[in-house]
Amino acid sequence: MVSSPTPFSDRLLGTNELERRLARRLYESVADLPIVSPHGHVPAELLADPEARLGPPGRLFVSNDHYVLRMLYSQGIRLEQLGLTPLGEEPVEGDDRKVWQRLADNFQLFSGTPSGLWTAATLANVFGIEERLTSVNAQAIYDLLAEQLESAEFAPRALLDRFGIEVLATTDAAESGLEPHRRLHEEGWGKRVRPTFRPEAVTAIGSPGWRESLERLEAVCEREIGDYRAFLEVLEERRASFKALGATATDHATETLQTERLSEQEAGSIFRRALRAEVTPGEAERFGAHMLWETARMSCDDGLVMQIRAGSMRDHNSKLKERFGSDIGGDIPVALDWTHGLRPLLAAHGNDPRLRLILSTLDESTYSRELAPLAGHYPAVLLGPPWWFHDSPNGIGRYLDSITETAGFQNLAGFVDDAHNLIAIPARHDVWRRATCAWLARKVLIGILDEEDATRIAGELACGLARRAFRLPE
């Protein structure tokens, strides 16, 4: 007997009717809860301008989505054909309809992927288009999307209300002037749209663009940074400025994971060599490890939640980075040693109740071996959700299977969507809620949880844990 296909409304909720019935009850208890989005990359400029629009369909769904770009590029489609312009050159493909058509012509590539789920859900739930995207209907769907995207109902601020987004955090460089956030704050949006402090560009003293980033930081602060002590003072001042505009967190991305405390004399000596462009790669790496230690110390003082995202080699495809820049899908996971790498930081600050340290990784092998035991012991540590490649139905299940027996649920940081695209946020949160409810239903059916516990945990995973982890008011 051939089973009937799962209805669209029941997607991800289980493989048999008993499981789906229970998962459906759990999902219905969380489906309409507010969206808490405490980490993402939606440009603050979009939200600061009441007249702003998200852009045409091709750019919105293809050119600005690195998940989509990497899949299409893997199948031999050049990035120029997808609306990207090589650095310093004129645009190659200026017809947004052609970009959208290439997505439709190749949409079968996304079968079984999170991008396929997110796109289908966004078209259906946000735009009312339930028809499967194909080469034949691509232009008709383009017209429907373009018309809606130009309307006032699709202004970014209007979408915050429509999507039920309670809090949206952007990610902002330490050297950012934060002008969009100032405008939002003055207009009463400051509690809803918050900046996040990201100092990566000014602490990576060995990177090619470091000096330019430092000069932008000097310009914002209107003071010269001539030594290490002045550098620390400026970072603390910037953290205070971010916090005054609603920031509750910092963000730190690193390929490898090392923390180390240098003496002020040694840190100062390395910083001086960096100013003279004489720093060695080894010294730059040690300085970065030291700055993670210093950031934890600062977070103990000012209360900003510290996020570490480790295990991603950025821009693995160096030729594409040289031609198009960063953030085009070229990140590749690497293996990590969290236990030894974090020990100096945790020895100093891991028992301090003032510190909140959220850890996220692309190295799944460390979930049960290191991250869950660390979060299950140190008061300061919480586990971030599946990230990048693992933000998927199967990835969510593997994550929960790996960590909850050791860390429990209260040592988790809930869900973050890490979205660059405002329009994708509801679909990502919906996939998380459906996948977690299906996972909880399976635990109820085998007797690990009862339904009352599962209902409570579903709500925590949906938004409660994230609110508390990022110190956000309800």
How would you describe this protein?
With 474 residues, the protein is an alpha/beta fold. The chain folds into two domains: 8-52 and 155-469, Metal-dependent hydrolases (TIM Barrel, Alpha-Beta Barrel), CATH 3.20.20; 54-154, uronate isomerase, domain 2, chain A (Orthogonal Bundle), CATH 1.10.2020. Helices cover 50% and strands 8% of the residues. It contains 20 helices and eleven strands. It has helices spanning 17-30, 44-48, 57-63, 66-74, 96-105, 114-125, 138-149, 156-163, 179-186, 200-203, 210-221, 228-244, 264-275, 281-302, 318-324, 338-349, 366-375, 393-407, 425-445, 451-469; strands spanning 35-37, 165-169, 172-173, 193-194, 197-198, 249-254, 305-310, 312-313, 332-333, 357-361, 381-383. The strands form four sheets. The chain has a four-stranded parallel sheet, covered by helices on one side. α17 (366-375) links the parallel β10 (357-361) and β11. The radius of gyration is 23 Å and the shape is globular. The model is unreliable at 1-5 (pLDDT under 50).
